Each structure stands twice: as C-alpha cells, then as structure tokens.
C-alpha cells in the first residue's frame, strides 16, 4: 500500500469519526443546514485534494478542522453576509434538529461576538478541543488563543449580564 493510500485511509477515518463535530463547526459559522453540509462536503474534497500537505498524521484532526474553518470563512466572505436564524424560524424549517443550543441567550450572545472570538469559544467549549489544538486549527500562537478565550468569555459574561439586567428592568 502506498503512502498516499495510507493517508487517504487516515483521512477517511478522521472524517467518519468527527463528522458530527465538523458539521456543527460549519453550522456555527453559517447558521444554515444546507450551507453547513455544503461546507463539510467541500472541506472533504479539499482534504483529499491536499492530503500530501499533511505534515504529521498525529495532527490529522486539527488539519481537517482547519480546512473546515477556512472553508466556512471562505463561504462567509463569498456571501458577504452572515445569516442569522432565530430559534422559531429554525424549528419551523426543521423541527427536532439538534442544531439549536439549549440556552438561546447564550446563542444570541455568541452570534454577537466577533468571528475570532466566536471561533475559539466554539472550538473550545462546543467541539471540546484543547488549546494547543485550537491554536493549530486557527494557525495562531497558544498565548493568542488563551487571550482570545479570556476576552471572549469576558465579553459573553458582560453581554449575558446586560441581557439579564434588561429583562429585569
């Protein structure tokens, strides 16, 4: 078996093992089922087309997540807009999906975060990646990721507190 065939088997295994996670990751960017599926499909195509660029098989998960993140960002740049879908519209389109976070206040606050903060929060807390894995996915320093997580959590805390205060008033 050639090196390429072994790499392709590893990529297939990674895709199969993390398919729900990468879909959720793409969905967190575009907020649309069909677009998220298109992004995942395009990311899979890109992964196979660039399998030779994988430097270490140990980092295959981070490598594939980076492809999904970059494909999502490319999609958003092409669209020139972010599509925001509220819970009632999402349920009307497809009741019973698991794409809705349990806490709508948190989802709203996440949507309002700048993309760089939303990315680190999604990868860390919804995809359960370690900080060094996030750094690899986003091609940033570990200290930068730590700072962004801290700043994002601070912004979320402020927004969540402000929202709760508005409800009381």
UniProtKB/TrEMBL annotation:
Listed NCBIfam families: sigma70-ECF
This protein's name: RNA polymerase sigma-70 factor (ECF subfamily)
Lineage: Bacteria, Bacillati, Bacillota, Bacilli, Bacillales
CDD domains attached to this UniProt entry: Sigma70_r4 (cd06171)
Alphabetical list of InterPro entries matching this protein: RNA_pol_sigma-70-like (IPR039425), RNA_pol_sigma-70_dom (IPR014284), RNA_pol_sigma70_r2 (IPR007627), RNA_pol_sigma70_r4_t2 (IPR013249), RNA_pol_sigma_r2 (IPR013325), RNA_pol_sigma_r3/r4-like (IPR013324), WH-like_DNA-bd_sf (IPR036388)
Family stated for the protein in its record: Belongs to the sigma-70 factor family. ECF subfamily.
Pfam families per record: Sigma70_r2, Sigma70_r4_2
Domain RNA polymerase sigma-70 region: 15-81
Domain RNA polymerase sigma factor 70 region 4 type, residue spans: 105-156
Keywords carried by this UniProt record: Sigma factor, Transcription, Transcription regulation
Organism (species): Paenibacillus aceris
